[in-house]
Amino acid sequence: MDFLDNLVLSVNDVLYAYVLIILLVGLGIWFTFRTGFVQLRCIKEMVRLLCTNVGASTEKNHISPFQAFCISTASRVGVGNIAGIAIAIIVGGPGAIFWMWVMALIGSATGFVESTLAQIYKVPRAEGGFRGGPAYYIKNALHNNFMAVLFVVLICSTYGLIFNSVQANTITLSLQGAFGFDRTTVGIIVSIMTAMVIFGGINRIAKVSEWMVPVMAGIYLLIAFYIVIKNINLMPQVIYDIVTSAFSLNAAFGGGMGLAMMTGIKRGLFSNEAGMGSVPNAAATATTDHPVTQGLIQALGVFVDTLLVCTASAFIVMLSKDYMGVGLSGIELVQYALVEHIGAWSSIFLAVMIFLFAFSSIIGNYYYGEINIAFMWQSKKALNIFRIFVVLMVMFGSVAKVSLVWNLADLFMALMAITNLIAISRLAPNAYLALKDYLAQKKAGIKDPVFKASVLKISQSPMSANVSIFPSQTAPESGRKTNAGILICEIDIKPQYVLTPMA
Questions:
Q1: What is the pLDDT of residues 213-271, one digit of tens each?
Q2: 487 φ/ψ angles, rounded to the nearest 5 degrees
Q3: pTM (2 decimals)?
Q4: Close Cβ partners of 227 (under 8 Å, ≥ 6 residues apart)
Q5: Which residues contact residue 133 at a Cβ distance below 8 angstroms, ignoring those fewer than 6 apart?
């Protein structure tokens, strides 16, 4: 097991140091400039869209923009925001937090591009609503079946299996630390609860996420805010340590600039998922009038995850005494810090929060897998087999070795992100055109813009996907075409067209 752990770690070092960092940072900066800093200039519109969609009613099997946001946030806001942040601080020093902030800033533009593309290329579900994501825009726009299938394998393995092992691992460790519960027993209980939700389908997942995510994130942020106010005199030093450690050339605070940068980017990617190709799967499920609507909402999700929840965890840890010298890491370090700040009862509180964070991530992660299983097999049997494997991996993660689980998560995350980043780098021009159209309508005084496919560059191609236009709020009717609505790829509709990225 140690040999496998070391091998995976060595491969991760190469991928993150020489491939993923360059792609993530480079494309994030490129998308930021090509969208005109959409993550900053549209922040007010992001908040408006999110707030106006809270509690919005939808037709049967349709998912609202807010519900899609909650599903993706359920996946984002998990143990990576708590245990992962503590690990990042110990391994990479306080400077890792700075590079996480940087990743959130530029990653928000990447999140906008991939989620907008997911809306453009989403497909209708036979039972109502929509599905989509990288596998769908890779196949229908890039016509690369191998790459699409590769992504399906990676995301099903990463989210449905590996990441859910990570979440279950942290649940059992936290409950063992707080209450002395047996990890195997806890694993069995969590596995049963997981099965009860995921066998209920997307609507049950959406309903659970819609109330669980805001409640758990709100409570956690309030606790962190109290700790910051209580220790406000120490905050200037905390900020100073974060900034100076980020650019340090010596090994103080954990390992210097290089290690801080690598750790921050790695944990930032795991946390906010910008560019990874996971969030577009949830973004595509939303029923919207314009693809940019969901793109902006999901871009805001990157800020919510990293600048709020992750920063809250960092401050909780860094405001505790001698956090670098107590010999703790991960969830144990966060528990230590909370006990110091607000008393022994906080260990129980954190255990409950960890359970909520991690369990919401399990069901959110599962749904990413479900969408992609449907891409490969339109079979209830195949889906149920996948569900069984998800439950088994939750049980495995409950008792597995921590380091191996986390390192496997990093490996699969890197491979999945590379595949998605290659795809969106080629398709991004259509996201730019959609954004231009959205902003033009807003400038003209239209409060809620409606998408028309004519704003995109469409050309006939001998290697075309079968594409049609359907109204955004309704399921498609065979052979029906209109000039308004979301662009939907559907294999049995003609004539054949393909979206061609602009040079």
A1: 677 778 888 989 999 999 999 999 999 988 888 887 654 444 566 677 777 777 776 67
A2: -75, 120
A3: 0.79
A4: 315, 316, 319, 341, 342
A5: 118, 155, 277, 280, 281, 283, 284, 368, 371, 372, 375
The dihedral over CA atoms of 345, 348, 354, 355, expressed in degrees to the nearest 10, equals -150
3-state secondary structure of 374: helix
Scan for tokens 């010999």, then name that residue: 327
Which tens digit of pLDDT belongs to each residue from 92-107?
A: 888 888 988 888 888 8
Question: 450 Cβ partners below 8 Å, 6+ apart?
Answer: 289, 290, 441, 472, 484, 485
Higher pLDDT, 381 or 112: 112
Domain ranges of the chain: 2-433+455-499
pLDDT tens-place string over residues 235-245:
999 999 888 88
**CATH 3.40.50 matches 2-433+455-499:** no
The whole-angstrom separation of Cα 467 and Cα 75 is 30
Q: Nearest to residue 79, comparing CAs of 286, 350, 400?
A: 350
- 211's CB contacts (< 8 A; 6+ apart) are none
